[in-house]
Model the fold of this input.
Amino acid sequence: MMIRTRFAPSPTGYLHIGGVRTALFSWAFAKKHGGTFVLRIEDTDLERSTPESVKAILDGMHWVGLDYDEGPFYQTHRFERYEEVIQKLLASGHAYHCYMSREELDTLRAEQEERGEKPRYDRRWRPEAGKVLPAPPADVKPVVRFKTPLDGVVAWDDAVKGRIEFANEELDDLIIARPDGSPTYNFCVVVDDWDMQITHVIRGDDHVNNTPRQINILKALNAPLPIYGHLPMILNENGQKMSKRRDAVSVVDYAERGILPEALLNYLARLGWGHGDDELFDMAQFVEWFTLEAVSPSASRFNHEKFMWLNAQHIKLADNTRLATLVAPRLAASGITLEEGPALTEVLALVKERVQDLNTLADECHYFYQKLTPTDADVEKHLSGDTPARMARFATRLAALSEWNAASIHGLFKPFCADEGIKMGQLGMPLRVLVCGTAQTPSVDAVLALIGRDEVLRRMAA
Done:
């Protein structure tokens, strides 16, 4: 079997991280088996689908680095094909026109609820042997409904959740075409999966209830059934479904918060799937390890602390040249110019061990290019009394160095502290505040070496 998977988001908003995980698992399964990963845009909801949302999906897929082999395909470009299949179902007796008005349906549902019954269409326009249907009303445009079997069960062996069964008597006669002729979601999905020869449908478990309806339609079309695997949802740390109001759920949110895409994918891979105790890995390793059998059928909780730890690990591993392309725009947005300062790649190599996100990484670079304004507390603690005079004496020794590097600067510390009768902290902390404007920096000799002799002496003199 040639494996073919698909990711099929609806362009009605941002690209949700739950969607990214679905795409990731579908992508990894196809890659592992040398198959094809298809991107399909399910844009039949004409009122809510927007070009901006389509762009957000495509940009999000590009940002996280999930490359698709085919697509993007758009359902709105396939209406002729859907109409062709609807006519086929009508001709074979697997679908029929229903003239029940919206008002009649609302009244029926209200009566059913009043009687304590499950609200559902009563199949009054469904043709059956010996049943006489009324004349179609002239003022009602019909919908097309699929003729769901009246008995039996729909069952499948879900690749994640195991055996799942639905009784057909619990299923409605699904509307597959609206009064204006436009096809509905569940019907379009079936035709698309059939035409695109999708072998494995890997999607969120909010689609479990759609699956028996889609299987019935596929059977009516004599189409092959894909293997279904329904992924559990992602909950926030409070055990609630993640929402835009409470949580960062859009990939754009994570990009703006300074998250590396490989860190996001690494963390999402671990939500509901695992490979022993392995936490930190790249996507090549994930593809090698991934199996649907290892996906948990239970919901997973998003742990922000662990996620940020993982992002920090990926920042440490990241190439400094690449990090520079990500940090430079953040520095520019803060008014920091890089032309007169040290090479950003060298600065990043020194400070990236200290941060968990790119925004903080950019902040850690500021004082290499522009002295920060120290807090009153730092000035009082580190630059009071005879400390300014001591710093002036140390500046003289710095100016006299024949070579300006971290080792030469470090060589001054011990003899100077001995001459002054002080501990290293009484030199290092004031030096940081005086030169950088903050007491929190990496090794001060390395910091001074990168800032440069002239700039260090200028700041000390000022």
